[in-house]
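Student: I would love a firmer grasp of how sequence relates to backbone shape in proteins. Thank you; the sequence and its tokens follow:
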Amino acid sequence: MTRDLIRAGQILKIEVLDHVILGRATVERAKDYSSLRECGYFYSDH
């Protein structure tokens, strides 16, 4: 889904900066979200 979002953004000339997945914080995961940029799935061109 993220790849499709990025491709659609490229067609529309919109840069996708991050894909954030919302959830619930647990003992194993302190945050209530996951950022794919923080996980290393996005590469910075800047």
